[in-house]
Design the sequence.
């Protein structure tokens, strides 16, 4: 179904990449000598450089010392995983190619090439745009927000489907909140064998929790004034039977 609509309001690639980086708890590093996984070991500077805490015996330390300065010597990979259980939970992957340099007991990674891959495709992120961008203000709170919406307010999720075009709900067996950012909420429409994402944009960006609450109330009010999709009416009737 052609329901992965073009979003009328969405974060730019650099902001999206910074958001993935800000929210990620783990990363994989591929360098000469192999691949290592690190959990809770990285921090990010304001301009997007990654500081990585590694054991002294890590092969990355030797690679950082021996690699020619400025030449790409490693690739960092970050995965953006949907907090709510859905099919295909990886929403995006972010790759940073670049080089490490020892700094204050850690390794500082400076990217020379950045690639963001989402379901819509892959894009090379401009380095200057990446350094200047800020993560979405809701990025680190998103997991808590979405799990609360899905677990505590399934009635609200169902009501929001009234804002989804009827053809996008054809054959729907479940609708779950997939993502939220300052620009809007994305719902995952799951069918028996396929799925699709539908974007509900806010009337204005939400830069904090108070504004997000107001934007969600507006969407819910709009949904309350709309008719219930026939596809979900049939779904509920089948379930009651």
Sequence:
């Amino acid at each position: 179904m052609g329901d992965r609509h073009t979003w009328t309001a969405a974060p730019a690639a650099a902001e999206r990449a910074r958001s993935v980086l800000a929210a990620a708890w783990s990363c994989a590093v591929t360098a000469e000598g192999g691949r290592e996984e690190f959990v809770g070991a990285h921090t990010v500077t304001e301009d997007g450089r990654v500081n990585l805490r590694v054991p002294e015996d890590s092969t990355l330390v030797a690679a950082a010392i021996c690699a020619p300065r400025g030449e790409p010597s490693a690739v960092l990979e970050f995965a953006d995983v949907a907090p709510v259980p859905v099919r295909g939970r990886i929403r995006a992957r972010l790759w940073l190619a670049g080089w490490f340099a020892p700094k204050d007991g850690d390794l500082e990674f400076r990217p020379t090439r950045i690639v963001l891959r989402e379901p819509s495709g892959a894009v090379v992120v401009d380095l200057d745009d990446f350094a200047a961008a800020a993560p979405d203000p809701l990025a680190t709170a998103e997991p808590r927000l979405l799990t609360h919406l899905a677990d505590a307010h399934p009635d609200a999720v169902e009501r929001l489907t009234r804002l989804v075009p009827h053809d996008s709900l054809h054959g729907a067996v479940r609708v779950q909140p997939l993502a939220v950012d300052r620009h809007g909420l994305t719902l995952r429409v799951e069918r028996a064998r396929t799925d699709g994402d539908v974007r509900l944009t806010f009337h204005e960006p939400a830069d904090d929790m108070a504004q997000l609450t107001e934007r969600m109330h507006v969407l819910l009010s709009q949904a309350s004034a709309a008719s219930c999709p026939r596809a979900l009416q049939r779904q509920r009737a089948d379930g009651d039977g």
Remarks:
- The chain has seven helices and eleven strands.
- The chain has a mean pLDDT of 89.
- Helices lie at 13-23, 59-66, 127-132, 142-152, 154-160, 209-224, 230-240.
- The longest strand covers residues 90-103.
